[in-house]
Design goal:
By secondary structure, the protein is of the alpha+beta class. The protein contains three helices and eight strands; from the N terminus they run E-E-E-E-H-E-E-E-E-H-H. The strands form three sheets. It has a four-stranded antiparallel sheet with strand order 2-1-4-3, with helices on one face. A hairpin with a 4-residue loop joins strand 5 and strand 6.
């Protein structure tokens, strides 16, 4: 019977478990060693790996796995401060990408050869400006674009 060993590969600065791997040969790993610049630590073979990754981190200062709250949204990253911190760069990049797609879908409404009446063009122009203004009108607690109330597109 082959013995299987499970190893957690953790970010050396944050302790975040990047992945867990089961191996038959442990010769490439050592407790507290490094593999591909990740800290290697053995974990119980019968542990719930998904739960371990979602609800734990390795506290480098204390040399032990500790529990943590689940990630609030996918835009939070586990930090070296031992807490979830909002990654506003990723959040805003994805938000702007979605906004830009909405703008791109209605570019045709503003062209000189658009079949729309001048009143309809004005409605679409107002809508497009509202889309551009979304980034400056976000609430202070904005931490996910999921469920965001986009301006209503003209009919």
């Amino acid at each position: 019977m082959t013995t299987v060993y499970d190893w957690a590969f953790c970010d050396k600065d944050t302790g975040n478990i990047e992945y867990i791997m089961s191996v038959n040969d442990t010769s490439s790993y050592s407790e507290g060693g490094f593999y591909n610049n990740l800290l290697t630590l053995p974990v119980e073979h019968d542990s719930d790996h998904v739960k371990l990754m979602n609800e734990s981190y390795f506290d480098v200062d204390d040399g032990a796995f500790k529990t943590r709250l689940k990630q609030p949204t996918r835009y939070y990253k586990w930090s070296s401060n031992k807490r979830w911190e909002l990654d506003t760069t990723q959040l805003m990049a994805e938000f702007r990408e979605e906004r830009n797609q909405k703008l791109g879908m209605c570019d045709w409404t503003q062209g000189p050869d658009s079949p729309l009446s001048s009143d309809k063009k004005t409605e679409w122009s107002t809508y497009r400006q509202a889309l551009r203004d979304t980034t400056s009108n976000l609430k202070d607690d904005f931490d996910t674009p999921d469920g965001f109330a986009w301006p209503t597109q003209p009919s």
